[in-house]
């Protein structure tokens, strides 16, 4: 049953993003930024963690989870270290994903020759 909910919830995020493209005529950058902010707001309201527990990868894989990670890390570090934790918590939680994206992008650029 968890696979069904992951598929439906993840698909719902995708449908919302596609509607933002088609109906609202937003650019990919505006759509991505909006979905990150939605994930951040959902975490600030305490809604994202229950959604991840319910839908698993359907909620933890889409771009909204990046906003969730930013706010979650900032709030956790705020409680532990005070106001400086707002800044350090953002980097602490998201650093592995961002570092991986940079490293894999570098290797892709080195190993793959563009056509043209």
TrEMBL record:
It comes from the Bacteria. Pfam families: SpoVAC_SpoVAEB. The chain crosses the membrane at residues 83-112. Signal peptide: none annotated. The keyword Transmembrane applies. NCBIfam families: spore_V_AE. PANTHER family: STAGE V SPORULATION PROTEIN AC-RELATED, STAGE V SPORULATION PROTEIN AEB. This is Stage V sporulation protein AE.
């Amino acid at each position: 049953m968890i696979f069904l909910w992951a598929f439906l919830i993840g698909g719902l995020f995708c449908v919302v993003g596609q509607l933002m493209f088609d109906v609202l005529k937003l650019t990919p950058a505006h759509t991505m930024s909006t979905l990150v902010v939605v994930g951040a707001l959902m975490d600030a309201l305490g809604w994202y963690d229950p959604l991840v527990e319910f839908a698993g990868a359907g909620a933890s894989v889409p771009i909204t989870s990046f906003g969730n990670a930013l706010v979650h890390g900032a709030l956790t570090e705020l409680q532990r270290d005070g106001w400086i934790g707002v800044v350090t918590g953002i980097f602490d939680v998201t650093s592995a994903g961002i570092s991986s994206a940079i490293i894999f992008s570098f290797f892709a650029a080195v190993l793959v020759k563009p056509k043209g």
